[in-house]
From TrEMBL:
Task performed by this protein: Catalyzes the reduction of the glycolytic intermediate dihydroxyacetone phosphate (DHAP) to sn-glycerol 3-phosphate (G3P).
Annotated Glycerol-3-phosphate dehydrogenase NAD-dependent N-terminal domain residues: 3-155
Active-site residues, as the UniProt record annotates them: K187
Record's protein name: Glycerol-3-phosphate dehydrogenase [NAD(P)+]
Catalytic activity: sn-glycerol 3-phosphate + NADP(+) = dihydroxyacetone phosphate + NADPH + H(+); sn-glycerol 3-phosphate + NAD(+) = dihydroxyacetone phosphate + NADH + H(+)
Gene that encodes it: gpsA
Family: Belongs to the NAD-dependent glycerol-3-phosphate dehydrogenase family.
Keywords: Cytoplasm, NAD, NADP, Nucleotide-binding, Oxidoreductase
Glycerol-3-phosphate dehydrogenase NAD-dependent C-terminal domain ranges (all copies): 176-314
Main location: cytoplasm
Amino acid sequence: MEKVGVIGGGSLGTAIAQIASQNVDEVYLHLRRKELADIINQTGFNNEYYPNTKLNNNIKAITDFNKLKDCEIIFLSVPSSAFRETLSNLQKFINESVILVSTAKGIEYPSLKTMGNLIEEYFDDDYVSLSGPNFASEMVLNLETVSNIASKNKNNSKKVKEVLTTQQFKLKIIDDVVGLEICGVIKNINAMANGICKGMDINENARYAILTKGFEETQKIVEAIGGNPSTVKEYCGFGDLVLTSTSNESRNHTLGMLYGQRIIVDEDASGIVVEGKKSIKAIKDICKKYNTESIIVDFVYDVVIKHVQPKIAFKRLWEKIEN
Ligand SMILES: NC(=O)C1=CN([C@@H]2O[C@H](COP(=O)(O)OP(=O)(O)OC[C@H]3O[C@@H](n4cnc5c(N)ncnc54)[C@H](OP(=O)(O)O)[C@@H]3O)[C@@H](O)[C@H]2O)C=CC1
Ligand SMILES: O=C(CO)COP(=O)(O)O
């Protein structure tokens, strides 16, 4: 393949570009800031996100969407909050045959649309979604990683797999697009739940009980929304749920820990992307819409949205466990 594009030159977009650049002639990495694009092109380093990692020479930073018109595949690696605006801007520039790949783990509120639903609104429904236990900071270093991809169009999944597969980066194709996307959203809420408990210094037995409950409830929610509950056993389900619920590298887990310590953070002002906080109301509404109870979602909603004292919220949660 000659050219692929990546929109969003942040942590994940830069890592995707670094991986794809091993398999294609040229990768166009689209950024919104010209100064950073110039630095990348002049030095070979994305000094804001990865100051110590040299990017491959065939990665070209761009700020003009028009340059993406010859790309066969375009990865959308901006946060979910920027997804609609990005698609709307992109619409004028690319042709219908391009394969769009969503890598964002969020959901639009209050529409409750997945990132795939948004792509359908502006383009068509043969997009590919990618998700897994994937810290971008490891991917950019070519460390061993597996991700799931799903699409209604199997050929598109195969093309994306071909472009990203390296000795270290493996991809497994599954059929369940909506299940894969929803797993990526719910794991962020579980990462926050486990972070809150860690921040409160809740004992380990209880924390892993909550993780187990989160796994079970993810299956229920995925099934209710029309996905396949067995997707939750995949890398994008179990793998990502456990990774981000237990690792301090996860931003969602870390924000949860701060809430557990009763430190309320304005993460919007910090500029740090925390998809879980933005998804809580949407997943709460989804549970209501599909008549599905989730005591973990309720716990995070109480602490983060309603500012209930973590101790009181945890007591309520524990009363509901296996009752
Ligand atoms: N980081 C990770 O380990 C992983 C992240 N993801 C998902 O990928 C998505 C992106 O996260 P991540 O890369 O970490 O986030 P980062 O904050 O590292 O990067 C976000 C990128 O999107 C750009 N951006 C932000 N807002 C807008 C906007 N309104 N319009 C245009 N561009 C915008 C940023 O530009 P600028 O630099 O100018 O702010 C930056 O290039 C999230 O949904 C996340 O859940 C999935 C798997 C792993
Ligand atoms: O999704 C991720 C790893 O799979 C990244 O998690 P955080 O957004 O919580 O950092």
